[in-house]
Amino acid sequence: MRVRAFLAIAALFPALLLSQIVAAAAETNRLRIAQQFGIGYLPLIVAKEQKLIEKHAVSLGLPATEVTWLQMSGAAAMNDSLISGGLDFATAGVAPAILTRDKTRGRMNITLICSLGSMPNILVSNNPAVKTIKDFTSTDRIALPSVKVGFQPIVLQIAAEKTFGQYDKLDSLTVSLPHPDAAAAILSGAGGITAHFSSPPFMEQELESGKAHAVLNSYDVLGGPHTFNVVYATEKFTADNPKTVAAFVDALDEANSWIKANPTEAAKLYVAAEHSKLAPDFIERIIRDPQIDFTTVPERVDAFADFEFRIGLIKEKPTWKELFQPGLHAKNGS
């Protein structure tokens, strides 16, 4: 009887091994990732250059994963690619990503994969009379990448609600202008642009020039550090590929640790990979900024969702755990 039992148990091992192989093979063997431009995407750049996703996929028992990297400017093109099946992971600011999730429910059904880090955005002005947002007048113009629904305009609306009791008080002063063009306008004093709400490296370039000063810090508006950019995917892809998603997050965690331990090397890698004209020591200063934290953990995402729900931008108010995929729930997010 004991011999039979032993043989019966031993016979199970090949079947169990085969089932694990089949399960792993059932996941995708390719991953198509779109990123936008800027230092906020440094963890993705490190993961790409050091092939960390491929490394962690193998460590989780997945077959060799082919990772394709795309650079796109703007969420519209990425969302179209997600819907058509031409893209697996998209990236965007957390505020517009929450809006996209709500607006595409029933069609695309997206879930947020992880944060790309907590990073302040600063509103600067070249108008000496503007010390706070209370000082803006009808002659001022505030440049943003997009009006009303982008990351910076939503933070500006939160600030306006707290200051004036009217969230859209400053909307009439905002104009859409790409960050590079807005920074050039601030530094030259031309084009009628008197303020620019941006992220690194543009805000540092403007402030270090001495031609502009800080008016508002997004960390002050939100009450502390907050997530800036996120990665998102369809719920179907996430459910079908849990190990691939886990390998991706593990890869970014390793990339973040490497950035923090090697800021000089990370700056050089960024400049080389992005063919940037910025000096490596300038990038290194940004990486070393104590306000910047490259992390996959969501921070103060609930505050964005709450505001967007209250002003009617989204129909439902999700918690951060409802926004992000289950593999992230054990992290100390907010």
TrEMBL record:
Coiled coil: none annotated. Pfam families: NMT1_2 (PF13379). Transmembrane segments: none annotated. It comes from the Bacteria. Residues 1-24 form the signal peptide. Keywords: Signal. The keyword Transcription does not apply. This is NitT/TauT family transport system substrate-binding protein. It comes from Arboricoccus pini. The lineage of its organism: Bacteria, Pseudomonadati, Pseudomonadota, Alphaproteobacteria, Geminicoccales.
